[in-house]
Write a structure and sequence with these properties.
Blueprint lengths: L20 H5 L3 H4 L4 H16 L3 E7 L5 E3 L5 H14 L7 E2 L5 H9 L3 E3 L2 H5 L5 H6 L2 E11 L2 E11 L6 H27 L11 H18 L3 E8 L2 H8 L1 H18 L5 E5 L3 E7 L3 H15 L15 E8 L7 H14 L3 E2 L2
Antiparallel strand pairs: 1-2, 1-6, 2-3, 4-5, 5-6, 7-9, 7-10, 8-9, 10-11
Helix pairs in contact: 3-8, 10-11, 11-12
Length: about 350
């Protein structure tokens, strides 16, 4: 799994120009590739600083009891910055745990699903803070951003904004939705690990979980008369890789392929394991043309797969990738898998590295 870089000892400078969607979305790439909630917290703060010009970003996540708790970021630089912030404000923002129902501002944000700007941090978190310290830090406003997606709340992102912020609450809400999706994916995968649903080598959902999800998505697609396709990808020279580079490096390569595929598919799609060394994807609402585009996009992304610090002489990957579409190639999951597998056998192997 790709790691994020240490973010340094303090917040990034505020954006020097008006923030637009492109400036917000690019820093969010690290959020979607984060392997756990600590890295989501780290990447979300970085995205808020670079994309919105925030001075600090604090992630408060909902626990099993509905309480909001601060999520510790992964990088040591971010932790040092938070320690200095606590010292300057005279309060430990990182140890706070509160019931959103008792805080009017946060409750309204979570219930309404819209970001809100407040003048005082103490008002936002229900804490007694020195207003002079807030001004001394250059904090002009406090933005509360809901982390919601598909009606499900993951918590709230608290952004400490400069006095003359160039971004908008609408862009902050866009960022909040992306962070919510990333958090849901991370939490779902962690739950899958606990249930034993993840493939131990490839770090994607195992074949049984994939088949269960495929059955559900086919039923949903047929009920709502929507398109659906499946994608199969196979590493044709995996045995050669094991012989030449060993099992350990080959498994690292398989995991890197899985990570790249996860970053390439849409958040509505689903990725799982196929046979011993392959991968399978469910492409929601994708007809034949959309499935073809997804296949081309996937193979193009996989051209970059490699292990930067590993000396692999004559390294190359031989991949085959095929798709099948609901109704065109069959009406059930096994039919689609069989059709895509038949196409795999007839495809010319693509050497991507």
């Amino acid at each position: 799994m790709k790691k994020n870089e240490d973010k340094g000892d303090g917040p990034a400078p505020a954006a020097s120009q008006a923030a637009g969607p492109s400036l917000v979305l690019e820093p969010l790439l690290g959020v979607h590739s984060a392997p756990d909630t600590a890295w989501v917290a780290d990447s979300a703060a970085t995205a808020a600083e670079r994309g919105l010009g925030a001075l600090y970003g604090l992630l408060y996540l909902s626990d099993a009891l509905g309480q909001l708790c601060w999520e510790r970021p992964a990088s040591s630089g971010r932790m040092r910055a938070m320690a200095r912030l606590n010292q300057e404000l005279g309060a430990n923002l990182t140890s706070m745990k509160f019931d959103p129902a008792e805080l009017g501002a946060i409750r309204s944000v979570l219930e309404g699903g819209r970001a809100k700007a407040l003048e005082q941090l103490g008002e936002a978190l229900g804490a007694k803070l020195n207003p002079k310290a807030q001004r001394r830090l250059g904090i002009g406003e406090v933005w509360l951003v809901p982390l919601q997606w598909s009606g499900e709340s993951q918590g709230v992102l608290v952004l400490l904004m400069p006095a003359e912020a160039t971004a908008s609450l609408e862009l902050a809400e866009l960022m909040g939705r992306h962070v919510a999706v990333a958090l849901k994916n991370v939490r779902d995968k962690e739950a899958g690990r606990k249930r034993g649903e993840l493939d131990a080598v490839r770090w994607v959902y195992d074949e049984q979980r994939f088949n269960e999800q495929l059955s559900k998505e086919i039923s949903r697609a047929q009920r709502h008369k929507r398109a659906l396709s499946v994608l199969l990808l196979r590493v044709e020279n995996v045995q050669e890789l094991r012989t030449r580079y060993g099992r350990f490096l080959t498994e690292r390569l398989l995991r890197q392929i899985g990570v790249t595929m996860e970053e390439t598919i849409r958040y509505t799609d689903f990725l799982g394991a196929y046979n011993d060394d392959g991968f399978a994807g469910i492409l929601v609402e994708a007809d034949q043309a959309a499935a073809k585009r997804a296949r081309e996009r996937m193979l193009a992304a996989l051209e970059k797969v490699g292990l930067p610090r590993a000396d692999l002489p004559d390294f190359h990957l031989e991949l085959s990738c095929a798709t099948a579409t609901l109704a065109v190639d069959g009406e059930a999951g096994p039919d689609l898998i069989a059709a895509a597998r038949e196409r795999l056998e007839s495809l010319i192997i693509q050497d991507v590295a």
